[in-house]
Amino acid sequence: MNPSTEADALNLANGFVALLNEMEDTCAVEETDGCTEVVLFPPFPFISKVKDIVGKSGITVGAQQVYYEDKGAFTGSVAASMVKSVGCEYVLCGHSERRTLFSDSDTNINAKVKKTLEFGMKPILCIGETKEEFDLDITKEVCAMQVSKDLAGVSKEDMANVVIAYEPVWAIGTGLVCEADKANEVHKFIRTILAKMYDDEVAENTRIQYGGSVTPESVDGLMAQSDIDGCLVGGASLFADKFARIVNFQPVA
User: Fold this and answer.
1) CA atoms within 13 A of residue 250's CA, in its CB half-sphere
2) Is the bond into 3 cis (omega within 30 degrees of 0)?
3) HSE on the CB side for 44, CA within 13 Å?
4) Catalytic option among 37, 89, 129, 167
5) Three-state SS at 116
6) How far apart are CA 185 and CA 189, in angstroms?
7) Cα–Cα distance between 207 and 203 in angstroms, integer?
8) Catalytic site residue 217?
């Protein structure tokens, strides 16, 4: 639920664009070769106006979630057609807060992934273990189950438009850190699951992002890893200078 007002959202968007315009390696969603693709996920009421600001700089917008029904008596829910109509290219599906705070089940997440694809948008499927599951050493089992359930019925062809984000829930806003090499191990494991579900081509080509409290201090090490293809940024994205630094990462050797 951030930023809290439209004015705050527009100020943040303007500040971010001003910084990003000083860089040369960002690009629009359909032109991703050799540059950094940037997608913002504003709260629903701010999507259109934020898009008007950032679109001129090659940045696109996405929705924080959708409901899996097209229409009906679902007060408070937002349909895929609605966010598509205001220019969203991506939709977050299964974000850790939706899973833990709103009891979003794997069955519902799977329906949202497929509904997003149906409307020509790209789902970012968020997966990851809680602190309790991490302490039980079942990270791989949790990720395998979530990937298998949440991508059930998604074709190999559709996988070209699916992004996966690994979010170790225990490392989000807790002060705890998932080291870059450990995160990379989980990403490699996720690819083995994709290879079993589809084939090696899908496993290799699917973008897998990391989303556990990414900061300007951690991004360079994360993006130097072999199997981390990007970052799903949370709190740091609420500060234009921090977010711009993350976008302009410099992988360490």
Assistant:
1) 3
2) yes
3) 12
4) 167
5) helix
6) 6
7) 9
8) no
pLDDT digits (tens, 9 = 90+) for 179-230: 999 999 999 999 999 999 999 999 999 999 999 889 999 999 999 999 999 9
Q: Reply yes or no on whether the pLDDT at 24 is more than 70.
A: no
Amino acid of residue 162 = V
Catalytic residue among 89, 95, 97, 129: 95
What pLDDT is stored for residue 176 in this prediction? 82
C-alpha to C-alpha distance for 202 and 195, rounded to whole angstroms: 7
- The Cα 145–Cα 106 span in angstroms is 9
Beta strands in the chain (DSSP E): 26-27, 36-37, 39-40, 60-63, 88-93, 122-127, 163-166, 207-210, 230-231
Distance CA 172, CA 174 (A): 6
Q: Could you tell me if 65 and 112 are in contact, meaning their C-beta atoms sit under 8 angstroms apart?
A: yes
Average pLDDT over residues 72-89: 97
Tokens of 243: 């977010």
Determine whether 187 is an active site residue. Answer: no
| 88 closest CA partner among 100, 99, 79 | 79
